[in-house]
């Protein structure tokens, strides 16, 4: 039955034990998952965004995490949506299609996550975020 359903017959405990063994033998230093902050830094560089847009995106991601605006979304989706919003906010707009190509998620995923950010924008966009760039304005944000 397991073969027919394409389900492994190895208990989760054994997989965890083997993972730890291989990590020790191979000397893997850090196996922590990447956060959306780490991803935003890389994606902003790949999108040739100025540092102000990157800083704005990271602050926006932290605010969204504190408020649970994007709870349950993957770090890649969070990064993509925050970059989309931040790039428009600081008047360095990047198309969702371009961001989706860099991030490796669909354009629809970014736009759906952006809708959640946009709905909560009054609480997310603090003075700290708006002070990052003199060009930052909520009037620059596209309506989803």
Automatic annotation (TrEMBL):
<dbReference type="InterPro" id="IPR023486">
    <property type="entry name" value="TFIIB_CS"/>
</dbReference>
<dbReference type="InterPro" id="IPR013150">
    <property type="entry name" value="TFIIB_cyclin"/>
</dbReference>
<keyword id="KW-0804">Transcription</keyword>
<dbReference type="InterPro" id="IPR000812">
    <property type="entry name" value="TFIIB"/>
</dbReference>
<dbReference type="GO" id="GO:0070897">
    <property type="term" value="P:transcription preinitiation complex assembly"/>
</dbReference>
<dbReference type="GO" id="GO:0017025">
    <property type="term" value="F:TBP-class protein binding"/>
</dbReference>
<dbReference type="GO" id="GO:0016251">
    <property type="term" value="F:RNA polymerase II general transcription initiation factor activity"/>
</dbReference>
<protein>
    <recommendedName>
        <fullName>Transcription initiation factor IIB</fullName>
    </recommendedName>
</protein>
<dbReference type="GO" id="GO:0005634">
    <property type="term" value="C:nucleus"/>
</dbReference>
<comment type="similarity">
    <text>Belongs to the TFIIB family.</text>
</comment>
<dbReference type="Pfam" id="PF00382">
    <property type="entry name" value="TFIIB"/>
</dbReference>
<feature type="domain" description="Cyclin-like">
    <location>
        <begin position="38"/>
        <end position="119"/>
    </location>
</feature>
<keyword id="KW-0677">Repeat</keyword>
<dbReference type="InterPro" id="IPR036915">
    <property type="entry name" value="Cyclin-like_sf"/>
</dbReference>
<dbReference type="GO" id="GO:0097550">
    <property type="term" value="C:transcription preinitiation complex"/>
</dbReference>
<dbReference type="InterPro" id="IPR013763">
    <property type="entry name" value="Cyclin-like_dom"/>
</dbReference>
<keyword id="KW-0805">Transcription regulation</keyword>
<dbReference type="GO" id="GO:0006367">
    <property type="term" value="P:transcription initiation at RNA polymerase II promoter"/>
</dbReference>
